[in-house]
Amino acid sequence: MDDIKTLTLAGALEGLRAKKFSSVELTQALLDVMQPSQADIHAFVTIDAEGALAQAAEADRRRAAGEDAPLLGAPIAMKDNMSVIGQPCTASSRILEGYIAPYDATVTAKLRAAGAIFLGRTNMDEFALGSTTQTSGFGPTENPVARGCIPGGSSGGSAAAVVGGLALAALGTDTGGSIRQPASHCGIVGVKPTYGRVSRYGIVACASSLDQVGPMTKTVEDAALLMDVISGHDPMDATSLDVPVPRLADAWTGADPAKPLVGMTLGLPKEYFGDGLDPEVRALTEAAAKRAEALGATLREVSLPYSPYGIPTYYICMTAEVSANLARFDGVRYGARVPCDDVLGQYLKTRAQGMGAEVKRRVLLGTFVLSSGYYDAYYNRAQKVRTLIKRDFDAAFATCDLLLAPVTPEPAWPLGVYQDDPIRNYLSDVLTVGANLAGCCAMAIPAGATAAGKPVGIQLLGPNFGEPTLFRAAHALELR
Amino acid sequence: MAGFDIDRVAMLARLELTDEERTRFGRQLETIVAYVDRIAGLDLDGLDATLHGHDAGAPFREDTPVPGLPLEAVLNNAPARIEDEIRMPRVVE
What we know:
Chain A is α/β, with parallel strands linked by helices.
């Protein structure tokens, strides 16, 4: 078998189809790397070795019988907020310890139908509330590339699993950058699809108007393979849109290999290159822009004037939705319960014991901005500012096909730093929350590394349902 | 940020806080609310609210019965149950 750490999803499927190796051999090879890595990297909350090997054996049986499917026999990792029937699903929160998902999320069902194998569940910031994977109720994940540093978050376990060679690919969720930011910190590809492109049914809701599920992979081609399986309208998620789903694995077909970006205009949002951007991140992003120009793209400066209001708007809208969504975790129907003689006491004590500090902070903030006397000043106003931010993106996309920008203001920082400084952590989302507030699609791709060897990504952002253009440009720009 | 009452908000959120959390979260939330107050000065007259990432709304499904989740798998997740019911503390005296 090829080097398991560099083996791509596409490469694995080719090997499986050519019968160079079996799905059982592939799954076992990943488990052999994964299990010892738990002691330091800790990418997984739960590993289902027995289940994965049984699914792999079944995939091998189907292939031997002449069957094929888009992902037949390919082992995938799922973020711990995605329901896989019969498996734990804790969203890395102690309050969901013991919960077993009684159904498949729609993305799970689609992957299953396409023949994918579920290796286990990746670590994340508790309820996806964080940018470091350190708020997990089960301990942090370490960046497998920038050792001693955060992998980013909240989908840090998925990013670590992919770059560490513990899974061929993974799914994450992105509410304010939770796919793109860890992808950037770990040096992989991460896609935040257009809001409404992928079903959220069966995902532990964080902020329902912002959440999207997306792939985290080693290559743009791998991300396209997964997007082609998970995209599309779902009657179980009324916010998923019934619009045509173009095949993304064909997005770059026919492009001129020397000048694949001819005819494409990339906007550089000036507010995303302001003070506070790390010099090495700036240099790598500018180098990517120059590469795009050399590949035929036209560059132009654009403005997103309401960007400075992105973080305040995001932290009002997101925490308001979080406080409502997390009200269901009360010790009644599932998860942990602190027994008490009266119902109110049971709610108060169960939530106090089951939720971590960052979850409590955001639930309190969200409750405050929705509370009587403050609703208009905060939640109502923030939703109107969101309109201004969305208009910024609409105006920018009227003059260019895609935006090119850094993902994070700085490379991965050491584990344990800034842990009790919430504002400092929130500001690290400054370049990613805009896409979620506007609903547009975005993708992080590797752009190189700092002198100290820390991976740095750039992001491309596209208009709603602009995924074909997004994937075409990303495929041309990714470093191979 | 006059009026931020950590005890009122914590009770609304159904969260029991320790004295240490009360002090720490109270201080941190004051800083965070002061930060998000940056939107206070913007002129937002006449603007509609954006509730979702797209403008397509959220259409209703057809009102037709479909099978629900398997009862046993759902009830098995309850922290305490009696036969086919979830057990809770008494709410009616």
